[in-house]
Design goal:
Number of helices: 10
Radius of gyration: 21 Å
Low-confidence stretches: none
Shape: globular
Strand order of the largest sheet: 9-10-8-7-13-14-15
CATH superfamily of one domain: ATPase, nucleotide binding domain
Structural class: alpha+beta
Order of helices and strands: EHEEHEEEHEEEEHHEEHEHEHHEH
CATH architecture of one domain: 2-Layer Sandwich
Strand content: 15-25%
CATH topology of one domain: Nucleotidyltransferase, domain 5
Mean pLDDT: 95
Length: 321
Amino acid sequence: MHATDVTNASRTLLMNLAERSWDDAMLSLLGVPRPILPEIVPSAGRIAVTRRFPHLPDGVPIAGIAGDQQAALFGQACFATGDAKCTYGTGAFALVNIGDRPLRSRFGLLTSVGWQIGSEVVFALEGSAFIAGAAVQWLRDGLGLIKSAAEIEALARSVPSSEGVTFVPALSGLGAPYWDPDARGLVSGVTRGTTAAHLARATLEGIAFSVADLLRAMADDLGHPLRRMRVDGGAAANDLLLQLQADLANVTIERPTDLETTARGAAMLAGVGAGLFRTKEESARMSRVGQTFQVGMSDADRSAHLRRWADAVARTRSQRG
């Protein structure tokens, strides 16, 4: 069987989001013959069974399919409109549930299907920051300030603030909401008193600022602020990063007991599709919050930090290689 689900199909530019079918106008524009495309199916449901796969018995149902970020959204049980999650990997990928109708973003965020179960369809907005954990890797491999990525938290905690040092991690350009591939990374506010610890803390702040930009764009598109975000990915193990994220984005951060939420979301969808769970809410029993990070920064301090960030981003974008 040649099939893909609606979440993956929605990211090809070839699927009509409203109808959830291949769009004839886009197929014609891009010269894609319809017969070569797979059938579009829901994210959960009995789609096929295994047959002649090494190390797997025949007849195992394939009952869940989703793109990685949509699977993480489902795995984080972001079932209500306005529920958001962010995956911190090499980059950072934030998604928010926007309900049962697609929404055109005013800030260049991507609209895709979050999941489909039966006739229930949920849409999502996604924003991507190109650099997140990769900035920490640069401190390790490019500058030699740390020997392992895990060392950055202790180094950054050794100072109470970045002392005005700001790092815009546009090492591969800027993603949403700027979409500026020509932007270049920038470190500003450096003095003779700046140390490796200040740069380490500025790096974590830069990741948190980048995600805060995404959340503000999402909130503006939805017309109301986001109050909570669930997190996953390797860098989400960093407590200081998550506290900075809560403070700078003005949202409560919830971290699950395990960070592999993409795999969990795929398993939850498969469980629903195979009938092991009667509802998506029942499947969400697999998802548990391990730690919560509350906002601890005043509005005045946050505004001052955001002005500092906006000034640095503006100067980052003025550079052209």
